[in-house]
Amino acid sequence: MTEAPITSSSAVRDADARQVGAVQPVLCLVKPPIRVPKASYSTLRCPPIGLAYLAAVSREAGYEVSMIDAVGEAIEQMLPMPGGRFVRVGLSDEAIVSLIPAGANVVGVTCSFSEEWPLVRQVIEAIAAARPDVALIAGGEHINAAAESSMRACPDIDYCVLGEGEETLVELLGVIARGCDPAELEAVAGLAWRDGDAYRENSARARIKDVDSIPRPAWDLMPLRAYLDGGYAYGIGRSRSMPILATRGCPYQCTFCSSPQMWTTRWAARDPQAVLDEIGWAIEEYGAENFDFYDLTAILQKDWLREFCAGVLERGYDISWQIPSGTRSEALDDDTLPLMRKAGCSYFAYAPESGSPAVLKRIKKKVKLDRMRVSMRAAVDAGISLKVNMILGFPGETRAEVWETIRFIWSLAGLGVDDVNIGPFCPYPGSELFDQMVADGQLSGLDDAYYDMLAQYSDVSAFDSWSEHLSNRELGMATYAALGGFYLRSFLGRPGRIVELIRNVRSGKHRTRLDRAVGDMVDRVRAIRRSRAVALER
Nearest CA to 77 among 132, 36, 23? Predict the structure, then answer.
């Protein structure tokens, strides 16, 4: 356990004032609004499955639980934020505070993406100011990666739940119920906490061994139907889409990713029959038509995939399913891909990240590009819509290596790949590359300017190069060249795609990620105009 002084301010109340004492915890979990760059190609409004899992395990442990999903409660409300670059999607701070039940004495706030931290911090400060009686818990991947700096920047946080959070949260609630004895707090693995002026971080918690023992997400505690009825989801299309997890963790150690710190490298798959049971339950309970798999690395085992697909067909589920976050190609071939399509798989993303073998080796991305291209061709032949995720501007990446990636991207259009997503490298907290850059003096502080910079992963107007061989301008030009060349070749090879794009954006029945991106941008412009009109009327 480490200990270091933590800066306080006059606005910070005594920590004891926010500890509930030996009383039964009443928990309220909060998903803050999101902030989106105005020039972003995505407005990612999707149900918070992580928070729904935490609510489920807390309720199963006997605690009273409520949830506030600030996005789902005001899913079409978008207002410009100070500075003009970002749009806020969801409830205001005042509205969030007003929804916290009067009897709640513990509030948990999630922050998954580091670029959202300035807004999440603002929400936490608003809750603390309005409800000085509650204990405040923060969690999520950003908190896991930057717990101490988050507690320094926001001393209103009493506790940080690190890593896989279900068991840690339930154990912490038990300690709170018994009066927050420091000796008991020290024994809670996976917990960081503020002890007066000291920051304390306990040993890491081991991953949950039996992933099938975790109860289903508590969707009944949040406005799920706002997402379902509006067709808001992580994947493409505008169907009634539910998030689902079939696996947890990732066995790989890519240097640009914070997953090894958050989840370790343990990959665990649920029983495919249990996943099928959950799908059947969601169809009956919510009328779900599509399922978005949120897994970090969804497909590693052919046998699991075959059993799942066979189960979908045997049970007669009339559904589609997607893997929008990216997956590998080892288990995807002429044998499995047609079966996946027959079982309803309509879209997924490959994640090679680079077209340069030298870059792949440096970032520890263990993929074989030739093997992945064969898999992509087979997926196209099977009738599955594909997106490929790429990154440009890694530290040390040369111009020659960038052009290797650009040529690889251009070649994907010839294979029939529908979309490519190209983001500039961003040094995320908790990743190996981030730690190395801090050690080398390339990064000095996690201030708001840094978090604003992270948002450029989806911002087509901002480029910061972390390669000594590329200027910001060169990185931007390389990105536009790669995107322009890919889509030009795609449209020339399939001229009907332009008409299809216009039709799909108008109807909301997206078939590709480009359809979804253009639709999101159009929706965002319209929503901003509506929100401004409502504000003027008031």
Answer: 36
Identify the bridge partners of residue 30 per DSSP, sorted by sequence position: 68, 109
Residues 6 or more apart in contact with residue 538 via CB below 8 angstroms:
none
Please list the helix, strand and coil fractions of the chain in percent, rounded to the nearest 5, in that order.
Answer: 45, 15, 40
Residues with Cβ within 8 Å of 494's Cβ and at least 6 positions away in sequence, in order, are none
More confident residue, 226 or 331: 226
Domain ranges, ordered by start, for the chain: 2-201, 233-426+464-494, 495-538
Please name the residue that has the structure tokens 């023992």.
Answer: 213
Task: Give 2-201's CATH code, choosing from 1.10.472.10, 3.30.70.360, 3.30.565.10, 3.40.50.280.
Answer: 3.40.50.280
Residues whose CB is less than 8 angstroms from the CB of residue 315 and which lie 6 or more positions away in sequence, other chains included:
276, 280
The pLDDT tens digits for 323-382 are 988 877 777 888 999 999 999 999 999 999 999 999 999 999 988 999 999 999 999 999
3-state secondary structure of 12: coil
Q: Are 150 and 194 a contacting pair, CB within 8 Å? A: no
CATH no., domain 233-426+464-494: 3.20.20.70
Average pLDDT, the chain: 91
Token pair for residue 36?
Answer: 């989106």
